[in-house]
Amino acid sequence: MTPLLMKKIAIFIIILFPLVSFSQDDSSISYGFESNSQYYLDDSKTGDFLESNRFRSNSFFKIDYSYKNFYVGLQAESYEPKALLNYSPNLDKTNLGLYYIGYKTKKIELTLGHFYEQFGSGLILRSWEDRQLGINNALRGGRVKFSPKEYLHFTSFYAKQRKGFAHSKGNIVGFNSDLDISSALNFENSSFNAGFSYVGRKQKKAETNFDYNNRTDLFSTRLEFSKDDFYSNLEYVAKGKDAVMIQNQIKNAKKGAALLANFGYAKKGLGINATFRRMENMNIYSDREANGNIYNESVVNYLPALTKQHDYLLTNIYVYQAQPQVSFQDPTLIKSGEIGGQLDVYYKIKKGTFLGGKYGTKVALNYSSWHGLKADYDFAGFDYETEFLGFGQKYFSDVSVEVRKKWSKQWNSIFYYVNQSYNKRYIEETFGEINANIFVSEATYKMGKGKSLRFEAQFLATNDDKKNWAGGTIEFNATSKLAIYVNDIYNYGNDDIEQQIHYYNAGGSYTVGAQRFALNYGRQRGGLICIGGVCRNVPESTGISANITMSF
Amino acid sequence: MKKIIFLSFLLVSTTCFSQKIIPNINLTTLKGKSVSLESQLSKDKITVLAFWATWCVPCINELDAINDVYEDWQEETSVDIIAIATDDSRTQKRIKPMVNGKGWEYQILLDKNQELKRALNITLIPHVIVLKGNEILYRHTGYAPGAEDELYDIIKKHSK
């Protein structure tokens, strides 16, 4: 621990201590601790562990305290002796990750220090934390929130963005307003909201002849409407001219844009939702040089893949990642954005019908399809001219059906089918195209008092890439506190016999209230680990891991 | 790591006497209205906050299981369950059709950028919090099939 860090922590404890020791009814405190450790082992099948430090650990301690209208908090983070494999090298040793102090009433909120913020759906701005992905792009600066009326909300801030334990060179300024028009005008039966945001990223322009400014401006306009069982949202983002970075060099200056439209219908027993999105050159980083970094650092906005987030191991091998960026790899591999959509249908077959049975049957369908933008590309000049609603090269599609059925008080089952088409060449900028069918079936047997047994069988069939996979899971909840599991996925169809590998895992967890301890041993499949539509590449590894989470 | 543990114990030991009140944070209704959490809680009544997400299978299993017995629970203890969706904008649009498609009877609130989840230092979902008024009585992480019975025992104990 550095002296400076000690000093920072000491100051916070000094602030916290008197508050805490006189705490009364109107004070509140909450803290959380999380630690993820791994001991990496050599593996006769996948190779020895060649990095430094076999034992690695990521730990977080966060405390929040509020007294009347004031709040204060901090998060200490420790990556000792080193961060887990493939986390950003900027996450190193122990330090204070976040610290903040604020004042909040019904109408006004002031924050100094770190804060998270999201405007609209995040297309223009979102700061958030995902510890498993190693993302924390919190903003550090000053923020004011003001709600003069119940139906009118304003936010503005000026900040730098967190990058590892340091902060961005670029400054971010943001303004947001949300107006609930239906409440303002006393509409009885419908709901109508409007929003407007501005985000500016200010960073000194590099010495170049390309025409863009120090400050990049982004504007977002939003409308949200719902009446009876129908609802819809519309958002448009315009991004001002900014440097186009290709392999860390400025090759052009272009504008960007995003359009998001959503329509839905929902009543008891039936829900339908359709989303359309088009993005062109929509990446924005707090430092231009961070463009395309593999650790998702310095990301200002949130551009997740709009596809179904599957829950099973074999359904998560070919996962789409949104393609908002401009890329010139070779004359046949040029990208300027993506266009596509997804459709969801949820339906409950009523109790007492032939298909519904005694308890009813729940069905969920999802379809998504994503393409590149149709455009005239000039490879030599790193330039393009897109067509507004033109569909270009197909990147990805996914069709899935889920049927959940309760057979009796003891038995439950889920059937899941997915068809995926994954254009690896365009998505990962390597080569290959994959078409796969995945079948999953799971059953749970409840024995009462928290005791239950769950089985899961999975099968992935494809003639492409690594060919067929099979997998299974058995999970036993001995009590509601203690659970153990084993799972395995086996790439038995791989053409290379050496690569026909079992990725097996076994482990258990013990939970008391909000405290959980888990232990795991196994071999981890290398590739993309995706959470919330954001992905991180992890290497193949074998080892023992321990996770502790506590919330108070 | 050791320092963090040390720091945790130091802070924990100094703070274990303060009362646990739920932070009053603004959430969004399915119609897009911003409401404060406190305004949704009734004094002297038990409310259960169930943190979930459309992509979290154990969360859905838990809420499906409780939904089957929710009527009985309400009759006996008049408990209110608020299902707090922590989905981010990737899956937020799936909440309304899913809730309707499943026929859940709960009140649904959206914690759009996980502000409440973070203020309560929740790292894993499913996570349930049992409240009386705005005072936290019990917290639990994870769901094992059948564990809803234990939750109900706690609700019954406090609702007397």
SSE map:
The complex is a heterodimer of chains A (about 550) and B (about 160).
Chain A: H1 3-21, E1 27-40, E2 55-67, E3 70-79, E4 93-104, E5 108-115, E6 118-119, E7 125-126, E8 129-130, E9 135-136, E10 139-149, E11 152-163, E12 166-180, H2 181-184, E13 190-202, E14 215-227, E15 230-246, E16 249-267, E17 270-280, E18 327-330, E19 333-335, E20 337-349, E21 361-378, E22 383-406, E23 411-422, H3 424-428, E24 434-448, E25 451-462, E26 469-477, E27 482-490, E28 502-512, E29 515-524, E30 527-531, E31 534-538, E32 541-551
Antiparallel strand pairs in A: 1-2, 1-32, 2-3, 3-4, 4-5, 5-10, 6-7, 8-9, 10-11, 11-12, 12-13, 13-14, 14-15, 15-16, 16-17, 17-20, 18-19, 20-21, 21-22, 22-23, 23-24, 24-25, 25-26, 26-27, 27-28, 28-29, 29-32, 30-31
Chain B: H1 2-15, E1 26-29, E2 34-36, E3 46-52, H2 57-77, E4 80-85, H3 95-102, E5 107-110, H4 115-119, E6 127-132, E7 135-141, H5 148-159
Helix pairs in contact in B: 2-5
What's the rounded overall pLDDT mean of chain A?
90
Separation of the first and last Cα atoms of chain A: 25 Å
Cα radius of gyration of chain A in angstroms: 25 Å
Structural class of the helix and strand makeup of chain A?
A: mainly beta
Describe the structure.
The complex is a heterodimer of chains A (552) and B (160). Chain A is mainly beta. In chain A, the strands form 5 sheets. Chain A has a 24-stranded antiparallel barrel. In chain A, a hairpin with a 2-residue loop joins strand 30 and strand 31. Chain A is globular. Chain A starts with a helix and ends with a strand. The relative contact order of chain A is 0.10. With 160 residues, chain B is α/β, with parallel strands linked by helices. Chain B has one domain: Glutaredoxin. Helix content of chain B is 38%, strand content 23%. Chain B contains 5 helices and 7 strands, in the order αβββαβαβαββα. A 7-stranded mixed β-sheet of chain B has the order 2-1-5-4-3-6-7, with helices on one face. The longest helix of chain B has 21 residues. Chain B is globular. Chain B starts with a helix and ends with a helix. The mean pLDDT of chain B is 86. Chains A and B meet through helix 1, strand 1, strand 2, strand 3 and strand 16 of A and helix 1, helix 2, helix 3, helix 4 and strand 7 of B.
